[in-house]
């Protein structure tokens, strides 16, 4: 989802990609044992810790453990509510064809939340009353936001609409496998090179995803390959969003609130015009007027939990780093799938568990590869060492023991 792709300011983007901590460790290892005087000077001139803030609440005065626990609690609670309400809305009889209208409603709420957040930031930095001051000027060029808005619309719209054709656990499993289009796209477009752990992670995700989808197609009577195509398109857009956001935020030092506000604002305009031209806006609006609580009411809580969830994910990245944040969000998705099976009646098979565990293994390998860089040359060297030990030690030891 969007929460996983938002990055914060430029420094947060660096930590998400795992380069910031690596540079710090390299610098530390270059001066392994400095003199005592230098150690005192460096500790005195050490920069203060990064500010950890969720909307107008400052968590910087808490210790690392408390920040982590608060962020984890927010991520789990809010995204479990988000998933529950999203699936609940699609259980309303006759709502499945209106997934794009739900996206329009969600974007509209996000615009309001983004406007409030930007004014809160201006109030915090400038003082005065909240509504008497203007938000900070836009940092990123409008043409970049036009691209981001289109990608955001593709991610959210296709993801919401896919629930009309897939069950919720299958959709979540697909979202867990965003590494696959990211890895393929970066190899083809940017010419990047990856190690064996990255390819092993992508392979595990592909196997688990195929197994999970096969089980879903056998158990779900209304399974439709169109849902798989929709969620796959959402993953492609989500993978592209990360690259565009990273470059824009790093170059223009834009806050995450600005990116969220303009991305969803322009996305709302895109979708509103498209739905007006196709006539789907009027049919969706008429259906929602008949079921206002189940659509606009649940849609508000659904959007609010998703928007606040983004803030907690960002706080978790700032306080604990991207690898740990990825582990927490993966665990959250597993809990969400379990709740989905418990709260909503749907067919179940043990194949769901095994395929889900294979996907989790792929996610773990991906996170592990960020901390432990392993090239194919390193792997070949280790295999040679291992085979050499096997070839010379067991037979001699066996003869002595006999």
Automatic annotation (TrEMBL):
Comp. bias regions, Low complexity: 23-38
Q: Which residue ranges does UniProt annotate as crossing the membrane?
A: 68-85, 97-116, 196-214, 265-290, 296-317, 350-368
Q: One Pfam family this chain carries?
A: UAA
Instruction: Provide the protein's localization.
Output: Golgi apparatus membrane
GO MF terms listed in the record are:
3'-phosphoadenosine 5'-phosphosulfate transmembrane transporter activity
* Protein keywords: Membrane, Transmembrane, Transmembrane helix, Transport
Query: What kind of membrane protein is this, topologically?
Result: Multi-pass membrane protein
Which coarse location class describes where this protein primarily resides?
Golgi
> For this UniProt entry, what's an example GO CC term?
endoplasmic reticulum membrane
Region: Disordered, residue numbers: 21-46
- What's this protein's family per the entry? Belongs to the nucleotide-sugar transporter family. SLC35B subfamily.
Q: What is this protein called?
A: Adenosine 3'-phospho 5'-phosphosulfate transporter 2
Q: Organism, per UniProt? A: Drosophila virilis (Fruit fly)
Underlying gene: Dvir\GJ13419
